[in-house]
Amino acid sequence: MKPLIITGTDTGIGKTVVSAMLVLALDGYYWKPIQSGTEGGTDTQRVAALTQLPSQRFLPERYILREPLSPHRAAELDHVAIDPAVLTMPDGPEDRWLLIEGAGGVLVPITREVLQIALFSRWRAPAIVVARTSLGTINHTLVTLEALRRRAIEILGVVFVGDAMPDNERTIAEMGAVKRLGRLPHLPSPDAASLREAFAAHFNALDFETAYAP
Question: What's 97's domain CATH number?
């Protein structure tokens, strides 16, 4: 498969909706390795509902934890021992995209010894950073980009979420030396049709397809 890591500058910034949009746009598969928080359903269930794609497009989670907390703490409360060694890249068709949604930000602890970014480094897949457009995003996004680069993780670019903030987006792209992939505006009632329309209006598929260009 052709994996792309979907990570973010924080939790609750729109990674799941962006993942759903990219699964549709790239006609890919979706995988959430670690799910923290099950009230109201999992992120896999949400992406399935948003995209209306068949069940075989959604790969099973390796860990599902009840509390909406950092995985290390949610696992402790569930009396689960997360083994990073089992968090290996799943198999699938070589020519298909795999959108991998991380848990929160890059430095979220998976265990009390291992940060999520260590998994990203081991997977050796390009990362897409999801960032909000509003106040505070410059610092959070530049810190995230620096953390990824310190571990030699390829960065495909940044997807912004929210109202247009041209100077914030420009500043991040220039100072972070990163490609602005596009901006997903707030969608009052996101569904497959509105996500496809948003991608067509605000993104260029070639920016994503070049991740594995020969």
Answer: 3.40.50.300
- Total number of domains in the chain: 1
pLDDT at 213: 79
Instruction: Look up tokens 């480094």; give the residue.
Output: 121
For residue 129, the SS3 value is: strand
User: What's the one-letter identity of residue 204?
Assistant: N
> With helix as H, strand as E and coil as C, how does 164-210 read?
CCHHHHHHHHHHCCCCEEEEECCCCCCCHHHHHHHHHHHECHHHHHH
Question: Cβ distance 179 to 173 under 8 Å?
Answer: yes
Q: How many whole angstroms separate alpha carbon 190 and alpha carbon 173?
A: 27
Write out the residue range of the structural domain in which residue 73 sits. Answer: 2-212
Q: Model confidence over 3-56: pLDDT tens digits? A: 999 999 988 899 999 999 999 999 999 999 999 999 999 999 999 999 999 999
59 in helix, strand or coil? strand
Active-site entry in 2, 15, 32, 179:
32
Tokens of 141: 């996004």
pTM of the full structure: 0.96
Is 2 among the residues known to form the active site?
no
Order of strands, sheet of 127-132, starting from the edge strand that comes earlier in the sequence? 58-59, 29-31, 97-105, 2-8, 127-132, 155-161, 180-184
Q: How many CB atoms lie within 10 A of CB 59?
A: 18
d(CA 172, CA 145): 10
Three-class DSSP category at 82: coil
